[in-house]
Amino acid sequence: MEGVDSKMRVLVTGGSGLVGKAIERVVKEEGGAREGEEWIFLSSKDANLMDAAETKALFQKHRPTHVIHLAALVGGLFKNMRQNLDFWRNNLYINDNVLQTAHEFGVVKVVSCLSTCIFPDKTTYPIDETMIHNGPPHESNFGYAYAKRMIDVHNRACFEQYGRRYTAVIPTNVFGPHDNFNIEDGHVLPGLMHKTYIAQKEGKALHVWGSGTPLRQFIYSLDLARLFIWVLREYDEVEPIILSVGEEDEVSIKQAAEAVVNAFGFKGQVVFDTSKADGQFKKTASNAKLRKYLPDFKFTPFDKAIKETCDWFVANYDIARK
């Protein structure tokens, strides 16, 4: 099945999600694609990747030479806490089907997407790429975390047995246009944006879940998209690579909420509801490996990226996932 033609044909699973849409924008609007390349963005409507036969039919149809694997069951803290078994099983099936089918079809390179929540809960900081398997993840999302860790195990075994250079990236907290702005099940920033929008519209106080003290590194989806394309083209290691702003750019949830409030021009009261869980206090990640490769990469300033995302949400409120 290998060597049918030399043209690069990139299949993006989860192409309708936050990161997939950002990659599509970079490829189509920022000149990210090179001449002669074909980029195919797929969503869950195209195939159920938990089904091996459907996954195979998808590869048969599109014959990709490269795959960016973003498809996953994802959710915020509270959804993970409720559905750890679903997160474990669904993601395990999806990942195994995509990686095994890619190998069977002679795909040259697969870049999968992990998450910093896969790292051990009890660890030293900053965390780096060598520490993924050093202990249990945080109990709030162990199902998702272990399923994602297995991608790294699969990639290493596939390289050892077949010489495949399949790898994975580990972004910190991603946000941007096309995010899931669901208040109950979304991640912290899009949830905050939606709540601020409603509070402003109704003239009520903004209630932020938790104490506001946890720390996070946030990466704008468009910055992540540019880095994803670089990894696909240039990064030759099987070992994963953390894609993140630096440790010095870590912000508290309180600071993130303030950035959202400023972007909306919200003038109401802001209340921190400490009866709600905070989740992990910090997951500070080192981007030293990324900086070794790309010392001059410029990340979009946090406040600017927040403003662009809030503006997108307001302009696309009726069609945004929420």
Automatic annotation (TrEMBL):
UniProt KW NADP keyword: yes
Pfam families in the record: Epimerase
Known EC number: 1.1.1.271
Superkingdom, taxonomy of origin: Eukaryota
Cited InterPro entries: Epimerase_deHydtase, GDP_fucose/colitose_synth, NAD(P)-bd_dom_sf
Keywords, comma-separated and alphabetical: Isomerase, NADP, Oxidoreductase
Molecular function GO terms recorded: GDP-L-fucose synthase activity; isomerase activity
Domain (NAD-dependent epimerase/dehydratase) ranges: 10-246
Gene3D superfamilies to which the protein is assigned, alphabetical: NAD(P)-binding Rossmann-like Domain (3.40.50.720), UDP-galactose 4-epimerase, domain 1 (3.90.25.10)
GO biological process: 'de novo' GDP-L-fucose biosynthetic process
Protein's pathway: Nucleotide-sugar biosynthesis; GDP-L-fucose biosynthesis via de novo pathway; GDP-L-fucose from GDP-alpha-D-mannose: step 2/2
Family designation: Belongs to the NAD(P)-dependent epimerase/dehydratase family. Fucose synthase subfamily.
Name of this chain's protein: GDP-L-fucose synthase
Gene assigned in the entry: LOC115809737
